[in-house]
Amino acid sequence: MSAANSVRNILPSGGFTSLRQLKLLDLIAEMGGSERRSIPVADISAEAEISATTVSSAQGFLRQAGLLETHHGALAVTPSGLQLTRLRAEDSARARLFLRDLWRSTWFAKAATRFLRQGPLERTALAEKLGQGLSSTRERGLYLVDWLDYALIVHVAEGGLVHLPDSSPAAEAPTSGLPLTSVEEVLALPDDTFVAVMRAYTTLLTSLRGTANHA
Hints:
This protein has about 220 residues and is mostly helical. Helices cover about 55% and strands about 10% of the residues. The chain has 10 helices and 6 strands; from the N terminus they run H-E-H-H-E-E-H-H-H-E-H-H-E-E-H-H. The strands form 2 sheets. The protein has a 3-stranded antiparallel β-sheet with strand order 1-3-2. The longest helix has 23 residues, at about 190-215. It is globular.
């Protein structure tokens, strides 16, 4: 077995929600500055007011997801991690779109897409499929679904049913009666509306591209 094929897939740590992990990433980026300095786990733990064990357990998934890197027991954000935290500070919708593009080729994005191509799944059912063979704790799979929802790779509806974005009602942008005549107007949209508009544009462009290819 090659080294590439022997890499173990990692789920988010239990007891530490995706939102708290995002805030931890923000903190590490802030402490490391624009130079992305490596920060000792003990210092991160003290600043975040959480245990060093919690910090260490969170880094596995964040590292595999391309957002953190380790250096002799210290942690630093990757260039992508730094970009994500900066976008989060400016506009959460654009941060989510950035993460979607960053994660398109990850094992968890591919797995979720594969499972949902057969149709929508309950959040718990998708969590179990994603976590099969990786953890006996359903919670960690649920946190992964939450991450995927944040990254716009899946859409979790109010009832807990999970769709692929292009097949979900949220993919239909509420553009009726909403003339967008400038970049400024688009940038001023609320997060949810901005994301829906971007999804609709993506769907439209994909459709036009397909039509052009068959012309």
